[in-house]
Amino acid sequence: MIKKPVEIYLEQHHHLETARISIEQELTQAIDDYETRQDIMQIPQLQQDKSQPTNKITNPVADAVAELVDVYKRRVDKVTARLNTITLQQQAIEACVDKAGLTTQEDNYVRLRYFGNMKHWRVAQRLNFSESHTSRLRLAAICKIEKMIGNESKNVLT
Fold first, then answer.
1. How far is residue 65's CA from residue 49's CA, in Å, rounded to a whole number?
2. In terms of residue numbers, what domain contains 79?
3. How far apart are CA 91 and CA 87, in angstroms?
4. Is residue 158 part of a domain?
5. Which residue among 10, 14, 31, 149 is buried most deeply as judged by most CB within 10 Å?
6. SS3 state at 117
7. What is the predicted pLDDT for the residue at 66?
8. Distance CA 17, CA 67 (A)
9. Per the domain annotation, does 26 fall within a domain?
10. Which candidate, 120, 110, 108, places its Cα nearest to that of 142?
């Protein structure tokens, strides 16, 4: 079966989902690291005495920990931005499918095959259809999505 460009575009959803799960785990770890470093800043020996003049030599350990907290905060911000980008890309693909005017069967096929990364024969089995019937569903769905994308923008598939 030869893949059309729209199918490659739809398959990106699954790849993005895999990346999203990984990035969510990375974000959880980054937040934990950041919060741990913030907690360290609460240790009394690291607290800066605000009543002392600013030209006084500061606590180098406190300064180093504060810098480390900033590094972890920037890491959290970067990972959050990556997660937001992936989420937006997934939502754009889902919007294309939602706007295509698919029948329920076509929609089910697209979501199982491309978003769920199921093989064609497995989708046929899951939907309780013959493989030839699911091939017709595939073609109808792909044509509708291509038509919708063509009406929306020529740049979606590139």
1. 16
2. 5-152
3. 6
4. no
5. 10
6. coil
7. 81
8. 34
9. yes
10. 110
Query: Which two three-digit tokens encode residue 27?
Result: 């974000």
CA atoms of 39 and 33, how far apart (whole Å): 10
pLDDT score at 57: 56
Query: DSSP code of 49?
Result: -
Q: State the angle between helix axes of 131-152 and 5-40 in degrees (0 to 180), rounded to the nearest 10.
A: 70
Task: Decide if 37 contacts 67 (C-beta within 8 A).
Answer: no
- Asked if residue 147 belongs to a domain, the reply is yes
Q: What tens digit of pLDDT does each residue of 79-123 get?
A: 999 999 999 999 999 999 999 999 999 999 999 999 999 999 999
Report the number of distinct structural domains present in the chain: 1
- Select, from the ranges 40-44, 56-60, 69-73, 113-117, the one with the highest average predicted confidence (pLDDT): 113-117
The reply to whether 157 falls in a domain is no
Contact in structure between 65 and 37 (CB atoms under 8 Å): yes
Q: For helices 131-152 and 60-99, what crossing angle results, to 10°?
A: 110
pTM for the whole structure:
0.74
Sequence-distant (6+) residues with CB within 8 A of 116 are 14
What's the chain's average pLDDT? 86
